[in-house]
Structures are given as C-alpha cells and as structure tokens.
Design brief:
It contains three helices and seven strands. By secondary structure, the chain is an alpha/beta fold. A hairpin with a 2-residue loop joins β3 and β4.
Length: 154
C-alpha cells in the first residue's frame, strides 16, 4: 500500500520518486487543502469519523523521499513531503515518514495512522522487537509522540 504518494503527471512541479511500481509526485505541504487526487492502494476519500494520517517513504537513484497526508474529519487533505539527505535504511525511511505525519497532528486527540510498513507498525505496537541500534531512537521517538494522543491506532 503506497499511502502518501499522490499520482500526478510527470510534467507537474514536484519531487518525482519511484515508489513501489508507480511513478509518483509528492506535493509540498500547503496551507490550503489539496485537490482530490487518487492515492494508490488506499481510498483516503472514504468516510471515517476521525483524523487519519498516511505515510510512506521511498529510495531510488535520485535520493530518499518521505511523505505524509493528513486527512481531517471533514475530509480535507494536507500533504507534506521531504527529501532526506543522509544515509539510511528502508526501515529508517519509513520511521522518518511516520514521524513527519505525526508531527502534522498538533492538538489532535485521536488518530488513525496508516502506512505500508509492517515492520514499523508491529514494532510501535510492541509486537516485534528490534535488534538494530539505529532503529532504537526512531522507535523511542514515535513512542513519545504517541503519548500526545488519548487514542492512536496503527
């Protein structure tokens, strides 16, 4: 599931990355809601009672990029993307994308977090352990961010 990538024509401005098998462009975060666009593998227009955030990351020969979409209760969507300029593993990329999405959610009490990284989801829920020392700071930080919410689901 490629949750945060917005399908666009390559001619539009934006950051082009290869994510899974689709060519996508992550739009920069703006202060206004985005136009409705298709998101592969997930219908972010589907009705839901609360706030949602979708996250994803990708790496290719052009670099490493992360993105997140925050969907409000009203259905408005806010997009953010960033390019990482340091060496990192695929799992570190997913954590960076999740953190990006969680940091968009100031003063929100309940949140549903959706991403395509089983590794991250199971670790954050305490179901899987990690042995890789570079993941510990990410896991700890996400656990700290979770404390801001009265209810958060992955």
């Amino acid at each position: 599931m490629d949750c945060s990538a917005i399908i666009e024509e390559e001619e539009e401005e934006g950051l082009t990355i290869q994510s899974l098998e689709k060519r996508v462009v992550l739009k920069n975060w703006t202060a206004t809601p985005s136009r409705d666009r298709r998101v592969p593998g997930e219908d972010i227009t589907e009705a839901y009672d609360g706030w949602r955030t979708f996250f994803d990351g990708a790496a290719n020969f052009k670099g490493v990029s992360i993105g997140a979409v925050l969907v409000l209760e009203t259905g408005q969507k806010y997009l953010v993307s960033a390019k990482l300029r340091f060496l990192c593993t695929n799992n570190m990329i997913e954590y960076e994308a999740d953190i990006l999405g969680l940091n968009m959610t100031i003063d929100i009490q309940e949140l549903l977090v959706i991403g395509d990284s089983d590794f991250l989801v199971h670790q954050v829920q305490g179901e899987w352990a990690t042995k890789y020392s570079k993941i510990f700071p990410y896991l700890h930080y996400v656990q700290e961010l979770r404390k801001r919410f009265t209810k958060i689901e992955f």
